Amino acid sequence: MTTLPPLRGVIIPVTPFQQNCSLVWCNETKRAAVVDAGGEVDRILAAAEAQGVVIEKLLVTHGHLDHAGAVADLAGELGVPIEGPQREDQFWIDGIAEAGLRYGMSGCRPFTPDRWLEEGDGVTIGAQSLSVHHCPGHTPGHVVFHHAPSQLAFVGDVLFRGSVGRSDFPRGDGAELIRSITGKLWPLGDDVTFVPGHGPLSTFGQERRDNPFVADAVLARRR
Ligand SMILES: [Zn+2]
Asked: What does the pLDDT average to over 7-13?
């Protein structure tokens, strides 16, 4: 009998953008997924070794450089499949090598996921299942992963502690981003802790109380 939670993880901030790459594993099987392998493959591999877990797949929230820059390299090195994002992000993934050059990040290569994800899909990590939520607005094919038993979500650049994702990129849409947050994330519950793409963790309830962009009171004033 174990008292450890079924899903465990560590955050590895990677790239000059300090993106919250997450190594997440099933405690029962010690099988792991890397969520948003943006860069620094060596540190990701070292974290897996330190935790004694085996990476079985790569999950991708969206196609931006700092989230997906090392996905092709890591998948090739480990021989594991890539799942996500939603296919509307293909154009971002196709441009990832050029973006890497602009920011001085070498080795960023485009890829085609083994599995595109859609609203309502599920992904597994070992014996654990996470639900997939399509949350466009920051990028058109952005997805979020939710593990209901742990009340934990990986939201990429949709929502941050005290802020929301940028929507001024090509095919970004600020109104759609707000709809994704209130229509897809809030229904998961106030008690859900989320790992954002950058910065500290928070809960949906906390953001509904005091996030200057999407708190309930802020949105009510806008209506
Ligand atoms: Zn992004």
From this structure: 97
